[in-house]
Amino acid sequence: MPSQIVSLVVNGEPREFIARPGTTLLTILRESLGLTAAKRGCAQGSCGTCTVLVDDRPATACLVAVETVADHSVRTLEGVASDGNLDEVQSSFVDNFATQCGFCTAGMIMVAEALLDRDPDPSEEDVIEAISGNVCRCTGYRPIVIAILDAARRRREAGVEPGRPAEEAVSR
């Protein structure tokens, strides 16, 4: 099969590129678009380091053939911060020491973003279930769970509606 032009909306911006059939979303993000936050870990979809949001749902980019998500919306860690400011989830990961080597952090944050977008007040069990597809080999999971619960609290206190960045909530 010949290569084809694929269109996506990546972090809010329309993007087009040429891809061979079967090229993974992860390869396109990293090698064609220069978005390197999503990492290649196991390349089998079981470690979660490559997690991005496709139409606001977590997806393991290493398993997604890019042509299957043509014309969809993709959000990566690079699209989370706004104007150079960390969002509540990112700040909470830093403040709660939920990162160490950082290899799993992008995937963990993207899963947390999806969780808090659909449930602004998750229980600890909800958080544990949400991150269950992501592997961390450094910090253990407790600081990550605490960081996500803290981020949820920060968003509620700031009046951030699910799926909406804090600065938009403030400017309303």
Automatic annotation (TrEMBL):
Descriptive protein name: Carbon-monoxide dehydrogenase small subunit
Sections of the chain in a coiled coil: none
Ranges of residues in domain 2Fe-2S ferredoxin-type: 4-80
InterPro entries in the cross-refs: 2Fe-2S-bd, 2Fe-2S-bd_dom_sf, 2Fe-2S_ferredoxin-like_sf, 2Fe-2S_ferredoxin-type, 2Fe2S_fd_BS, Beta-grasp_dom_sf, Diverse_Oxidoreductases
Annotated EC: 1.2.7.4
Cleavable signal peptide: none
Keyword Iron: yes
Short name of one Pfam family: Fer2_2
Domain of life: Bacteria
Keyword annotations from UniProtKB, A to Z: 2Fe-2S, Iron, Iron-sulfur, Metal-binding, Oxidoreductase
GO molecular function, one term: anaerobic carbon-monoxide dehydrogenase activity
